[in-house]
Amino acid sequence: MRKCFLSVIFLTILASLSASSEDSCNLVLFDIQEPNFALNKKPDYEIKGIEVIGNFGAYYADKQHAAFYNGMPSNINNINYVFDNYYWREQIKELMRSNLNRDSVLLSPDSYPENMKYTLAMYVGFGVRYNYSSAWALNIQFNVCKLTAKDVFTLQVFPAFDNESKSYVNYGVFGKESRTIIDIGAVKTFRTKEHIRPILEFGASFNNTLVKENFIVVEDQKFNIIDIYAGRNYIPNSNVQEYEMRQGGLGVGLYVGGGVKWMFNQFLSLETTLTVYSSMINLENYAGMGLHFAPMFRIVASPALFINND
User: Fold this and answer.
1) 200: closest CA among 212, 186, 211?
2) Which pLDDT tens digits describe the chain residue by residue (310 residues)?
3) Do the bridges between strand 248-263 and strand 289-301 make them parallel or antiparallel, or are there none, so unpaired?
4) Which one of 111, 159, 201, 276 is CB 3.0 to 4.6 Å from 154, fit for a cystine?
């Protein structure tokens, strides 16, 4: 996705430069004035038509939805699923004996993560925008991100380490998901005589969340806490059937954003924006509304790029 996105930007810039070199007006970078950009053509902010957009940025997801992955006993995916299985528990005890010289562990009620949150994710996509006036446009864009949630849980080990009455060790718990986000809305461009123009956007947002993984790591050994055996007990070398579990789903929300449009010429511009989402993320028991933030760069090919100047 990242290589494809960069290729689109590169080809768009080449097309813009080629079109600009054939333009009899000999435009200078950032020298966007009131005169016509091309013979008998309106300035770009008066040209109705479709803009093509490439997006690249970051996505900050609300931590409240990350709690879906924390492994609490009340969650559909929980750490007890591993420790309640005799074979996995024995495997963990063997890891303790080999690496820590401890022969027993306890998963207590206060062992679970308390600050599960998502890490910063890359946010990429594309969009189209129809300018129906000099100030307003209809906008639709498609963006994707891959999120990772993480925190630690605690195990009490026996016997305790030297000079300690009780000994604890921390291990990681992780969740991975993908989100596809579709935004449909309006964009307001504030007309100025400068090459920098403020923009404001708002609309409806639709998302599809798909859980990829939920697991713990104990002494570098990974244990899946998603019940891929559909309630059947795991037994090594027993050919217990595995199932592909579908977790996640569709969500809706609203978005509002703003930023600045940097106009290089009548063909190409760069937008720097910040979008704030108030969205429902469809994760079981954690499907409430949350605030998500997406700072982005956008390469925008204007309608003038697609108009024949002959």
Assistant:
1) 186
2) 444 444 544 444 444 444 444 443 343 333 434 434 444 444 545 567 899 999 999 999 999 999 999 999 999 999 999 999 999 999 999 999 999 999 888 988 788 998 999 999 999 999 999 988 878 999 999 999 999 999 999 999 999 998 888 999 999 999 999 999 999 999 999 988 778 999 999 999 999 999 999 999 999 999 999 999 988 989 998 888 999 999 999 999 999 999 999 988 888 999 999 999 999 999 999 998 999 999 999 999 987 777 765 5
3) unpaired
4) 111
